[in-house]
Every structure is written in structure tokens, then in C-alpha cells.
Amino acid sequence: MNRYFSKIRLILKRIGFYLPFTIYFVLFLICVFLGYRWLNRQANIPDSGYKDVFSLLLTIALGACVFIICFGFISVLAAFVFIKLKQKNNKIDFQINQLADNKSSIKRHFSIKMHPVLKPLLGFIKVRLNYDDTLYSEKFSLIKEGNFTFFNLTVNGVYNWNLPEIREYKVQKAIIYFEDFFQFFSLAVRLNTNKTFNTLPETESVKELKPFPRKTEETVTRIEELKKVEGELINYKNFESNDDVRRIVWKIYAKNKELVVRIPEIMDPYASHIYLYNSFYSSINVSGNEIFEIPFLNYYKTACWSLYKQLLTKGLEVRTVSDQPIPNKNFSSQEEQIQYAITDSKWQNEVGLKEYIKTNNASIVVISSLSNLSEVKELLDQFGNQISFVFVSLTESFKKQRITDWMTWLFLQKEKDKTEIYKTNWAVSTSRSKVIENEKEIKELLNKYEKSVVYTIS
Amino acid sequence: MGIDKVNNYKKVIAQLILLAIPTLIFVFFLLWRVNSFYSILQNDYLKQGLYFGIGAIVAIVFYSYRFRFTTTTVILFALNYFIYKLLGNITTGEFDAFYVSIQFLIFNILFSVGWLVGFGFSRSKYFTIGWSVLMLAVQIVVISKTSDFTVSRLISDIVPVLAYTFYIIYTAELIRNMNENEAKFTWFITKRLSGFAVIILLLFFMIFNLFKGDFKAVEKEWGGSSSAKGPKGQDGGNGDNNGGGESMTQKDKGGAVSNKDQSKLSGSLNKDKQLIFVAKLDNFFDDGRTPNPLYFTSCYYSKFDTATQTFETDINMPYNDLFSPDPSKIPLYFKKTDQSIIKKSLGVKNRKTVTAEIYNVNLSPNVYLAPSNAFYCQPISVPKEYKDQFRSAYSAKMWVSELNSAYFIYNPAGNRELERFQEQRFQKLREVKTIVGPDKAFMDYYTYMPVSEDYNKIKDLAINLTKDKEAPIDKILALRDYFLSKDEFDQPLFQYSDNPGIPGMPSANKLTYFLLENRKGYCAYFAGATLFMLRAIGIPSRVVAGFSVVDRSSKNPGWYWFYQDQAHAWVQVYFPEYGWIDFDTTVPDVNTQQAPQPDGTPPTDMPKTYLVVDGIIESVNEKTKSVTVKTDKLLFHDKDFGTSKPEELTMDVSLATISCDTGEVKIEALKKKMHITAASQAEIFKNILPGIYDNFDSVVTKLPKILPIDEIKILPDVDKQKQKEKKQMAQKEGINWKKVLLGLLFVILFLGMLVLFSPQFIWLWFNSKAKRENKMSAYWRYRASLYYLNQLGYKQEEMGPRQFSEKVDMQFSTNFLAFSNVYQKLKYSTDALSENETRTLNEFYTTFIKQVKSKTGFKTRFKKFFNLNNTIHYFTQPKIN
Questions:
Q1: Disruptive mutation site among A40, A42, A60 for chain B (greatest number of B CBs within 10 Å)
Q2: Entry pTM
Q3: What ipTM goes with this model?
């Protein structure tokens, strides 16, 4: 039933996007109608010119409204017809690109460019983006870029998009609105595009960890300089097709026509690597629950990423293992790959801690308030002194309310975001007690082990 | 604690400069207009505007921070309320407290409105739409109520509000949509606003061209206050004009006159010397010969609107003793009486019944005028020979106080004889020691006085003037004498003037100005001032509007002629048992007195009407001039007969005069279902007398089969007339509106058609060029052929001329290639054309077009010629070599 309603809502919403007039226009009509009725109800003053002057002024006022509204409409219609014709001939160029982020802001910056587009006279061009199939951005106008010329068929600008969820977004369509100077009419044209953007986790300062690498790995270090060939034959091997040609020892080739390469030096033999396990396992069913899927997941991802960055800055060799399949993409560095992996992860209930963690190499295991208590207990019992367990308390993401907050709320209106709604929903959520209980018990368990920490983002 | 901002400083500045300041200017303008006409506002528009402005500006700055509207505003309003209450309590002196708290209240209201507007501009998305429409509506009402109706005035009043309305919606949206991070932010705003200004100018240009005629019509009909304010000599015959100046009477569309049901104190009074009605008053002194004239009453102004300084009638006044039937709605010779009037007149002493006959010359047919207190109305017929002179007539009966003889009422103004005569009346009234009304509500109502500084001055004056007097009548006389008193130079203190002018401050109290400063005015001023002075000392009183009587000649005793300039206002004072007694405190108007109007010949020798039939027409025979009427009401020898079963009566109307409201009409005007009254003065009825026991049916049987009728009056059908008026109004309002809409639709349609048919037009142009024989014909033929082909969908695109020509020839089996070659040769070669080539050139075009036409069906061609894309493509493709 709910699904049915949400489907209808979506359809209605979509229809709303394509309505040729705006709520301003409806409001204007209502106001004019009410004003007209009020004026007509004004008591007539007999024996004066009131009635005549009144009807004349009313006619003028209405005439002026009709004129100026028609003017606006025609300018919008012209722009609309223009783009429709161009679209028919596939001559519209629409580009959207993500710009470098401003770290402190949750807004992502996008540059949008359209050509050729005729702007409605003194009117506005607005855009709405359709992403992830069913989601739509707000209707926005672009922050203009480029030269201010009087006649320009290119629309070029920047949009600061609020995409708070740490995940990947797929922009599929752009709806371009042509609006008149009063924004009464809004004729929409749909343009297709296909772009993917990420909201990446940010690095926060976190509690310091002192992990120990447990995995011994052979590190192949490339020889930066060609050294003079010395030593035994043991240091050489025959050239194979995948070997670096620069390593061929030409002196040997000169002597006996044999292509041999020098075997790289091997750095060992101590435990060199830290294996970081980020568990997205949830012991309770959280699918469809916005609180878990948005603020909690964001918090958890930020924690995982911040932890990783902290380890990196210490100069440690870190490897992470994902507990869910991550699409293969080309990344320029391992760091980017890990960031993407964290970004793309979701809560899952298939791979439990025990299946996920390879206890022989794991250095750090990040667990959340949703982790299974018995599994955590079992692992701690066995490896509590070897593996660092980092516990991310999800409920911490909602900072505790103070009395002053209430006063602030009363007098100040915060910027519209969903945090307040999540907070309220969380306060009345049925899962709340379960999660808090779980958190409490995990914390108690962890307190027994020196290596484990309860993790906080400051 | 840092508070976040919703709007950054750039936006706030833009809101202040572009929204708040224009709004403030507009509000100043509006307040100034309102202040000019509503005295209650004390002419403080600068201060009031400032209050509003402070509210708006503070709110814009305040709400640029993230403050919540509801809580902050509730606290602000509560604070204001407490201050208001506190001020009422702490200020010493009752009046001071009242004054200070009223001042604070005005401040509070305007500040709060400003605050809400400021919030709206700062935060609300939709506010500006509601606000601007509201301002537009308010301004329309204010202009309609208060403006002088001249073209320039109307334009200067409506232009700012229209401009403001659109400006504010546009600019608010512009500011909301602008991005403060944007570079060249000011340039963006300036560019946009300039563009918008051009559109607005265009709009006004169109409006004034479109509505110029209407403006002028309104000015002609209602405007021209400048002439009304001129010297008296100029406005003498200016009865149609009551827009700028005030008149004691009003005219309907047919030019008929009546007293107005309200009277505004204005700077000038328009008078006319037109004869309004003639009355025969059966009121004589005891000698039975000397006529005793009476003032004629139309209505009572018992209420005063302090805001507009207008006297108004009030149907809810206690003991409403006004009898105001509509004589045109009463069938001829039938009567309407209201005996309760006698009781409500509250007069028992010195009262008698007087009859009068009023002959209407130019009086509105639905107006009933008679000396007070009338209680009876019977429309009577006008003798044939006077039909041209009088429109209609009615007879009236009044319960008249003997103390209300005009000679008692007149302001003696030094006339000793009159003073002596009036002394009799005063002696009688002196017996009344205190005036006590029938009940408290009565006293409260008729002694009500507005409270303000101005009215307090009037009160002080009245108390001062009457301090030595005991009896109410002496107090009244003291007030009357005040108007007749002289100043230190022995000049009259008060003067009658139709053009007293208005106080320098437009909203100042006109009565105070009249009483204490200017001391010039017409009857309404004198009556109004007297009214408030009387009420100030607790004497119940009201103003009467009607006609004063002038006894000009003794040619026809009992007959009085009433001209428009006799329209008058005076005061009535209530005396227990005597009822309402008239007093005229207006000082004599030298002009009117010096130029009396002539009396005419009264209608005499009225034949006796024996039979009156009231009914609905069943049929009309224009040939035989007979009318059949279904009647349920008869008047026979002055006796009423009615029935529940209407009878059909046939009437001979060959000699009858037929009339309706507006005058005499022909028999063709009689239609089925019309309500008429028919009267007969035929001698045949003289001897048929109704018996004591006769009823309707028996009377009908006594009557002849065909009734000879002398007069028929058509009664207006009330419902139909209302409907008609409504329809007319609707049409009047609708036409302009529709016109504008239709005009616009037509223009849009025309432009649309023009665009749609443009390929056709272009083709016609090319074709006509191609058909001409001249040096350029080869070029035009080539161009035309290409255009034709292009329009049909055969585009040259990237093809060379040869390639394209071959393709076309293949498609249509034409010789386009040959022609193309000739054209290329002409274009690039200096060689002369061979004979063959010249022939090709000459013969090619018509055959080519024919051939192409034959190969493409009409339908395809028709369709393709509406394809604008192809046309655009033709003109945008790279130039043909």
C-alpha cells in the first residue's frame, strides 16, 4: 500500500515538475481574485464618480496585469520553442561537471553549461537534476560565470548542490525551466545526460590509535638506480617477457648473449602491514530506515575514512578489506580506491564479523553499534589482545541536546536540513533501545581490552 | 553565540534599497492621500510613514539573521501591548492618557505592519504577491473615494501603484534569485531593472493610449472640481457637476433632482436655479386666508462620519419618524399610509393634520417630499393641460406642529417683525425646563458627539455661549444669535458663502475651522455646527435636509414654488410633547434673497376622478385602442374595493394619456403583463354610486362593459428593472475586460498565423522575383528553385551545385542541371550565353516548378510549406556558391 502511494506521489511530483505555471502564478490568481471580490464588495458611494472611476481603475489594473503577464509568457514561449527546435535537431550541448570541493562545506560544486539557449527576456533559466532514477534536486538557478554580454546563447554557471549522503550519485536527466520575470510561467524541457558523482567521506580528527602490523608481506621495491653488477649468479635470472627491460644486465649479454635480469632486493622479514577491516555488518534489519542509512552510515563512513587517513599519515602500510563487492574502477592511487570503497559501502547483513575477518593478519577491526554482540565477544575473547577493535558509536552522531538548544530552537530557525527530522525520528524510533543496549554492552566488553578503543570524532 | 545569517549583507542592502525604500515612498504617498481625506489621522502622514519605515527596515535587518518569526513577533507584539496598557495607566490627566495611548496605538499598528512587511521581504517567498495585490486594491479604493476626477490626477494616482505592484513582485524575485557570490552583482541588478523599467514604460504608454477616452469621459462626468471651486457667479448653472464641489441635491440620469442621503462638508456648494416642484399646501393661519408655509423635509441626517466629515442618514435611528414611500411604485390614486409615524413623531401638543399636493417638475419620481411628519402618500393624476409642465403628482398628509411654521423657523436676522412673531413660539417652548427623551437610547443617540480635541473646542464654545441661559429654548436662541452676532468692527461674525473654502490642512476638522476661524459657510455648515453645539450641551438634535420655503407672491395663496437653490439643511430639536421643532440657524444668503424666482401658474380646476383600476394588462388592441386588464383592486368614488379573484375589465383608452416614470408615452408602449393604473374622470360614472354594502364584484357589475379611461400610468416592474440594471452593470464592467483579452488573443493569433504562413509568404516573394525578366532573373530563378526544393525537403546540404542538380533531375526528371550550368556560367564567366543557353534560361523556371509540383502531391506540398524548420534551414545553410 505504502509503495503504491509513494508511486502515485512520485508520478504526481513528476507531473508537477512539468506544469507550465508556478505556484506563484496560482497564488497571484488567487490574490487577484480575492482582491477583485473585495473591491467589488466595497460599498458604493451614491451620487459620486466612485463607481465609474472604480470600474475604470479596475479595468486598467486588470488590463495591465494581463498585458504584462502575456508579455512574460510570450518571452518564455519563444525561448521554449527555440530550445525545442534545437533539441529536435540534436544541437543542444549540455555539460555538467563536478568541481573541486570546498572541504568545509557539505555542498558539492558543479559547473553546468548549455548551448544554444535563448533566455526569456528578463526572465530566468532554472535547472532541476534527476538522479538515481527517482530522485530530483531542487529547482535552482546557476551562479553565472563568464562574460556579461547582452546577447549570449550560452548559459554557463555553477551550482552548489547539497548532497549530504556519502555515496555515489548518478545524474541521468536535467530539466531546464524557462521562466518569465515574475516566475509565473515555467516551461520545461528535458535533456539527457549521464554523469556520476561522489560525495566522499571527509577526514575528521579522531582519537589516536597505536596499532601494530601483524601481516608480514614481501615488499617488492623497485631498484631506482642501476647498480654495478656484482655478486653471484644467484642474483640473476633469465629474462622473461614481463620483466623490466631496464634491468637487463647488458654486460652478461655482451659476454655470453644471454638476457638476464637482476632479481630485486627483498625487504623483509618483519610484520610490515596493517590490515584494516571496516565491518558494515548490521545485526538488525535497517533497510529502508533513513536514520541508519543516512546519518549513521555517513558517520560510520567518515569514521572509517578518518581512521585510515590517520594511519596513513603515520607512515604505515595499510591495506583494507571490504566486506561487500565494490565495482571495479580505475583509480590513480590506492588511497582513492579505498575512499571509493568506503563511499560505496552500505549496511549489509550477509557477511558477519567472523566470516569477514582473517584473524591471522587483522590489525584493526572497525565495528559499529550494529555489530553482533556475540560475534564481537567471541572475537575479543580470542584475539582481544592482538587485534585492535575500534568501536564507532553511531548514536554519538546525534549530539546530546542541551537546555540551551531548546532556547535556541525557540528563537532561531536553523538552515533546513534533515538532521532535526532524523533526531526527532531517532528519539521515537523502536530500534533505539536495542541499539543503545547493544552499544553499551559492546563498550563494556571493549573496556576490558587495552588495545581496543571506543572511537569518537571530535 | 554567533547567529547565522539567512541573507548576507549584499542581499540585505539590496532589500533595503530596492524593496524597503520604494515601499516606504509608496506608503508615504498612500498615507498622504488617506490623510488628506480622513481627518481622524490628524494629517501626520510623515510621522506615520516613518513608523512604518522603521518597522520594515528593522525587520529586514533583524530577519536577515536566523531568527524565528513566530516567537520573536509574538514577543514584540506582547511588549507593544503592555507598553500601550502601561501608557494608558501612568500618564496623568485623562485626556493626555487617551491621547498618548492613541498615538502609541497608531505607532504600534503602523510599526507592526511595517514589521510584517519587512519580514515578508526578507524571508517569505510568496509575500510580495499578496502584498502588492493588496496595495493595488487599497489604492483603487482610496483613489475612487478621495480623488478629484481629472485625467492628470487619476493618472498620477494610478501610475505609481501599478508601477509599484509589478516592480515589487519582480524585484523581490530578482533579489531572491540573485546569488550574492556572483561577480558583477550590481551590474546584474542594474541591467535587469533597466530592462524591466522599459517594459513598464511600454505598458503605461499602451494603457494611456487605450484608456485615454475613458479617463476623459470620467473627467467630463465627474471631474472639473476647479470650476466648481470658482467664484459663485461661475457655478450658477452647474448642476450636473457635483464631483469636486458639493451640492445639496443630486441628479439622476434623466436629470431629475432629489435631496441627497448624505452631505459632505466641502469647499464649495453648487446650486442651480432649476424649478424642482410646485406644492399646494393646505395650511393657513387662523384667518383662513393667510398662507402658513412649511419647510419640506426629505431626510434626517442623524449621524456624522468623522472620518469623511459627512452627515449621513441612518434608518436605525431611534423613533425613526421618516415616511419615505416611493410614489412611482404606488398605483395612481391608491394610497400608502404609515400611522405609526404619528406616534414616532413624539409630538402631541400643537399638532394638526395638514394636506399638501406636490406637483413634480424635476423631482426624482421615486422621491417623496413633504413637511414633517408626513404619513400619507397618494399619487394623483396631473390634468391634461399641465402634462407638459408636471411629470407626476401626489397628495400628502402630515402631522404638523403648529410651531413649525416657516415664519417660526426662519432666521430673523434682524427682522424685528419676524422676531416679534417668533416670540410666541419661544414663550410656549420656554415652558419646557429640561429636555428628557422618551428613553435613554433616544437621548444617547441624539446627543452623541465624537470625542477629539476639535469637538472639545466646539463643546467649550457651546458651553460658554449658553452659560447664562436656563431654559433649553434660550440656550438654542443663544446659539442661533451667536451666528448673527457682530465682531468688534460691527461686521457680521458669520457670513453665508457657497464657497467657504477648505482649511489649509486638508484633514483638519471643517466644522471647527468654520466655527472658530473661517466663519463662512453654507447651510450644511451652519446646521452641522449648530447640531454639535446643541448636542454638546445635551440637547437632542438632528439635521434635516429638504427644501426651505420662500413665500414670494400672494397671487396664488397656498401655492409654493421650489427651486433647486432652495435645497436646504437646518436643525431639529426635540422638545418633550412638542416633538421635533425646526430651527434654521443659517444666516441669510444675500444672493438668493436678491434674486427671487418667479412663480408660475398653478394647476387648477382639477376634474374629479371617479374610477381607478389597478391591474395587469391581459391584452392590448392598438386598432380599437382598447385594453383588457385583470384587476383585483378598484377605487370607486374614493372607496377602495379589493378581491382575491381578479376580474377582467375592458377599457377604452382612445382618449387616455399614458405615462410612465419618465413622461408621456404612446399606446404602443403598453404590453401584456404590464402593471398599470387607469383613472377615469368620465361623467358616466358620476351617477353610479357605490352603496354601503357593495363589494368588488357588485361594483364591477355596476360598471359599463367598456370603461372610458382618461389616464393610464405604467408602474415600473421592480424585478425586471433590477435585472436590467444588473445586466447593464455587468455589461458595462465586462466589455472592457473582454475587449482587452480578445485584443490580446487576436494579436497572439495574428502573430502565430504570421509565423505559420511565413514559408508561404517567402515563397510568394521569391516566385514574384523569379518571374520578372531582368538582369537578375537567373539569380532569382535559381534561388527560388532552391527555396522551393528546400521547402519540400530536398536540401542541398553539403552537395555541390552539379551533384545536387543531378539528384534533383533524377528525382523530378527536370533539366535543373542545364539551368544550373547556365547560372554558373553567368556567374563566373564573362562569355556571352549561347542561343540554346538563353532558351534554357528563359524556359526553365515555369516548367521546372510545374514538373516538381506534378511529382509531389498537393497534400505533401501543403504540409511541407508549414515546416518552419526547413525555412530556417534554408536561410542558415552556408551560402550557395
A1: A60
A2: 0.52
A3: 0.73
